[in-house]
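lol ok so funny story. i was supposed to be doing the assay writeup but got distracted and ended up predicting the structure for this chain instead. priorities right. anyway since i did it might as well share w the group, maybe its usefull for someone
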Amino acid sequence: MGEKMGKVWLVGAGPGDAGLLTRKGYDVLQAAEVVVYDALVGDGVLALVPSAARKIDVGKRAANHTMRQEQISQVLLDEALAGNLVVRLKGGDPFVFGRGGEELELLAEHGVPYEVIPGITSAIAVPAYNGIPVTHRDFTSSLHIITGHKREGADYDIDFEALVRTKGTLVFLMGVRSLPDIMAGLMDAGMDPATPAAVLQEGTTAGQRRVVATLSTLAEEADRAQIQAPAIIVVGGVCSLADQFAWREKLPLQGCKVLVTRPAEVISTMSERLRKLGAEVLDLPAIATVPYPVDASIEEAVADEATRDDAIGTARGEKTPLATALDKLSSYDWIVFTSPSGVRIFFDQLLEAGKDLRSIAGARFAALGQGTSKELMNRGFVADLVPVDATGEALGQALAKVAEPGSKILIPRALIGGNLLVDALVAAGHEVDDVPTYDTAPVFHELVDVAGEFEQGKIFCVAFTSSSGVKAFAKANPSIDLTAVRAACIGEQTRKTADALGMRTWTSDHATMDDLADLIVRMYADSQNS
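and the output, tada:
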């Protein structure tokens, strides 16, 4: 038998907003072994590409192709014949001027299995994000999507007279460089020069801009506004509805791009809050958690020799503090969790040690933050204590007050944790086992040019929800000038870490996700008014 053949999925990435990637497209992307992507895929979607997948950049933007179409088709064929699961990630929809059909021809010829997952086309989504319905019975009964791209020096192969006769909405993709020619072609074909028309730049992203004018004035107005690609052109009476139906700019964070750091294994509730407020969120995991095995020796469990003995406090080859703590679980009065990752890893390690929930039945639980509390609830436990401020100091002070004198307290958390939590509990006379159950490592993102985004002023700020996130961000992005980074910090400890790295810092009123989101709204409003 021959080697197993792979498969190709042609996936439409949508117009830019990562929230517009379809559920099916996301699921397939997560399973990809090879991802072939082009320049029109939004960086929010690129951030979703699995780190383990091999990435192939084929460029593909007007007048700037990294790879010819024939070469792209050959890459897809070769990777599939090598037995790989391949995602061809394309901006918009693969079959709306995406040359998806051409890429399938070679696959079909060689009997390679493939699927097509449609994407939301910019021809519909971008006008919608700008308050322009492409159809409206008071204005038009048809919609026509036309490629505005043409070869340098060539005439348009477009029947402008036929388009004018339709009296429908016209959407030109990839035509911003030829805007004067398109407008002239329509007017020469008899369209009223007073017909409403619009050019829409970077729709569905923080860079979204629109210019609404008339057929005769749009080219001049777009030039005055310095509109650039990627942009689409819309012609028709529906363009007159833009101001009336505009909704995106009414959101407080429209035009604001926020980078959110988080552990790689955690879905960010912060990101969802910001998206609802209108922000474009670049959701980049800053740290990955590395659990320590329960039954390993210290030198196997902790790879960093410089911190091994001091941080763990146990001789090489002996039982890990985690294994020791699990052996005496029933003796603890309280178990304290400082992160969702800590909850998840602790319960996994509990099962790894051959124990079940009965071993912690007598303990009470404290959680740092609502996210940690929610993860604990997912495991079947309601936190007995969740301080209003999600800081180690606040948690330590609150627990020191409510715990019985001399309580035995277990804190399973990251190797390098802040001292304020433990100090507050020890000062109150409690017996504390501060046990490292996992370590953290920075996550590097090869597809998203984070440094370039900052240099171009595209990212307004970074939302930091922990000190470890600040440190990991700095490690993962060594080329960034940190003094130019606006850091929105969830608490004083996080702010101090960002301050130490030279960032420009702001701190939320309380250490909660809602307060952090409110802080970013205020920061952005102040920047717009200054």
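The chain has a mean pLDDT of 89. The chain has four domains: 7-120, 124-249, 257-288+444-529, 292-442.
back to the writeup now i swear
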